[in-house]
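Duplicate of #3305? Posting structure anyway:
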């Protein structure tokens, strides 16, 4: 069933108003008609609305609420992926798949070994694209909210944000050892606690970046004996977190 997002002020007692680009998508791409059903979320993680299309104008679609699903689809903990800028279009893949796994926010990082350099114009274009992908993936996977894609930060800015705002902070690092320690860190996460995950670009993190992260309390962890690509490492840890937190 097609899924859409609205702001809380668009939800009334009996009706929901849909505006913006979704109007064209519903009317002209999906060619939906009155009487057909959709699901709608407004960013409240525990609420999803099953609705029936009641009217379709050029700028507004009105949907009548049939029933409300109170069961939350979001994980019990907020997960933020701090991702070193990868080459080509890998960031799009990373955002799409990690949204499906339950990641709630993304912070693109300019790291020492990142090949990609974005000026203001390119960054604005990339952010629009990444945010559109996050919204599309959230709709496809039935998320209760659209995961936020932050503006690009330096590594130092990202470390400061994580240390100040998150309960648990991890940085997978190829020189880290002790899988039991990684398991213990995951086991110690409790419902409602927030998690920051740092993933390096293709060349990994520089030693001085790992040292800076450790000074801020971000813990180096291992993901196993194999070297994972930048687009795989975040998903591996997000999947482990999903299995740990789902239903808690």
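Output from current build:
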């Amino acid at each position: 069933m097609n899924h859409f997002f609205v702001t809380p002020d668009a939800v009334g007692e009996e009706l929901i108003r849909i505006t913006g680009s979704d109007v064209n998508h519903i009317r002209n791409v999906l060619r939906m008609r009155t009487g057909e059903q959709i699901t709608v979320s407004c960013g409240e993680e525990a609420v999803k609305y099953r609705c029936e299309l009641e009217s379709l104008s050029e700028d507004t679609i009105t949907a009548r609420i049939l029933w409300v699903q109170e069961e939350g689809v979001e994980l019990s903990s907020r997960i933020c992926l701090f991702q070193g800028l990868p080459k080509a279009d890998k960031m799009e893949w990373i955002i799409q798949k990690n949204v499906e796994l339950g990641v709630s926010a993304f912070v693109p990082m300019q790291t020492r070994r990142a090949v990609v350099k974005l000026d203001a114009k390119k960054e604005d274009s990339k952010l629009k694209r990444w945010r559109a992908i996050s919204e599309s993936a959230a709709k496809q996977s039935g998320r209760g909210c659209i995961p936020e894609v932050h503006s690009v930060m330096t590594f130092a800015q990202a470390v400061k944000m994580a240390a100040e705002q998150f309960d648990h902070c991890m940085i997978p690092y190829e020189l880290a050892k002790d899988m039991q320690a990684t398991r213990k860190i995951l086991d110690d996460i409790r419902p409602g606690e927030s998690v920051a995950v740092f993933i390096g670009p293709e060349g990994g993190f520089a030693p001085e970046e790992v040292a800076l992260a450790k000074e801020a309390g971000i813990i180096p962890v291992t993901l196993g004996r194999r070297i994972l690509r930048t687009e795989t490492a975040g998903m591996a840890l997000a999947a482990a977190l999903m299995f740990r937190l789902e239903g808690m």
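Confirmed duplicate; merging threads. The chain has seven helices and twelve strands. The longest helix spans residues 120-141.
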